[in-house]
Design goal:
The chain has 202 residues and is of the alpha+beta class. The protein has two domains: 73 residues, no CATH class; 108 residues, no CATH class. The protein is 29% helix and 16% strand. Strands 2-1-3 form a three-stranded antiparallel β-sheet. A two-stranded antiparallel sheet has the order 4-5. Helix 3 packs antiparallel against helix 4. The longest helix has 14 residues. It is extended. The termini are far apart. The relative contact order is 0.10.
């Protein structure tokens, strides 16, 4: 299905406010809305956002189908994620049972761990002076990091091979401060954190 006849929405921005209008059955209907309501003023900025049905999105994103951008799927949650979800369920209910708990689950899902194998940009771009493998790649091993997927900003402007990469100047390790705040609220000790000292009574 082409963009011409596929469902889409319109993102509209005005004076710092943003909202999404739709869905529209296709591009002609969306363009007609713009002509009637947005086209006669320079007050609004807009762009078209194609919509994908959930079943089609699941196929595109699924690891067995290659995954979007060939990103490997997460086979299991981190133990800390499991503990936090269990604590939310214990105090507020399972997903879908309560708006408050749903907000906490959604917040936790935003701040999920992001596993990456990183190297210096010069090594990726073959500009370093390190020894090289027969295929020309750098022999210096990458280092594994776990960042917060939501807190860590990514390169959205340069394009090319670095597009979507985290900025090296602003790596936010996981668990990030919002996740640690959830841990504190539910009395969960994150991995690698010393237990508080309990003084014994004489």
């Amino acid at each position: 299905m082409s963009r011409w006849d596929s469902p889409l929405a319109i993102d509209v921005e005005s004076n710092g406010l943003q909202w999404t209008v739709g869905p529209f059955p296709g591009l002609p209907a969306a363009m007609r809305f713009v002509s009637e309501h947005l086209g006669d003023t320079d007050r609004y900025r807009h762009h078209y956002r194609p919509l994908t049905a959930p079943d089609e999105a699941a196929t595109r994103l699924h690891h067995s189908a290659g995954g979007l951008f060939h990103t490997p799927s997460r086979h299991q949650r981190e133990p800390l994620e499991v503990d936090l979800r269990a604590a939310i369920a214990c105090h507020h209910g399972d997903p879908g049972e309560d708006p408050h708990s749903d907000g906490l689950y959604a917040h936790l899902d935003l701040h999920r761990p992001w596993h990456l194998d990183l190297a210096d940009p010069e090594c990726w771009e073959h500009d370093c002076e390190h020894p090289r493998h027969p295929d020309g790649t750098c022999t210096i091993p990458t280092h594994h990091v776990v960042l917060c997927r939501h807190c860590t900003p990514t390169d959205t402007t340069s394009g090319g091979e670095s597009a979507g990469d985290p900025y090296p100047e602003c790596h936010v390790t996981w668990p990030c401060s919002p996740v640690l705040a959830l841990c504190a609220s539910f009395g969960i000790t994150p991995p690698g954190t010393a237990q508080p000292h309990q003084e014994s009574n004489p």
